[in-house]
Amino acid sequence: MLFLNNYFYSVEAGMCWSGPNREGRCNDLLKSGVTEDECCSGVDSTNSGITSTAYTEDLEAGKLFYFRALRGGVPCSRCKSTCEGVKCETGKKCALKSEAPVCICAPKCSRRKRKLGPVCGTDGQTYRHVCRLLKRKCRKDPTLTVDYYGSCKDTCDSVRCVESKTCILDHNVGPHCVRCKQYCPPVTPNSRPVCGVNNVTYSSYCHLQRAACLSGTAIQQAYRGQCKR
């Protein structure tokens, strides 16, 4: 029974590679001991968006060294040559590049969104419309979002924040929109006061943030504890 189990495992287990080179050979081993279905699932789990993996049977160390060191790689072929069954992350779609399926940035963006005009991103950059920002988010910065509508400003005077946020002025990065804290925990003997760069002591970091939001000007924490006047 043990022999049969080992036999079936050896038949099912193989090697998963990054897509083959122009000569149809693979050098970049992604994972070993996987089934063909696991290797060729078509799910895009890489930052580059490349879905062109290749699968081969399991090779012993000697053969593996021979092919990789002396023959330019292990003979292999792509799992997929079309976009059929390829699943891409949200905001991406499958397209063929160099005869291989690749997940490219294609955020859903209507004509109405384009007509809304420029937006200021949380990176402090102005984008012609929200669609440009979404493409940048997909390609370079997953944390990027719309800070407010309109070109990036130097003051909060004409900033239109969204989602009930409030504009506060940070002299380092300019104005940006934040959600003001409506409530801070009551002050207790265990509360940890902080000192702001304005030399004012706040009961907690939460109280410092709330004070900054209500004043419309960012207040950085200088250090923990009472201010040393």
UniProtKB/TrEMBL annotation:
It holds the Pfam family Kazal_2. Residues 97-154, 178-229 form the Kazal-like domain. GO terms for molecular function: calcium ion binding; collagen binding; extracellular matrix binding. GO terms for cellular component: extracellular space. Keywords: Disulfide bond, Glycoprotein, Repeat, Signal. InterPro entries: Fol_N, Kazal_dom, Kazal_dom_sf, TB_dom_sf. This is Kazal-like domain-containing protein.
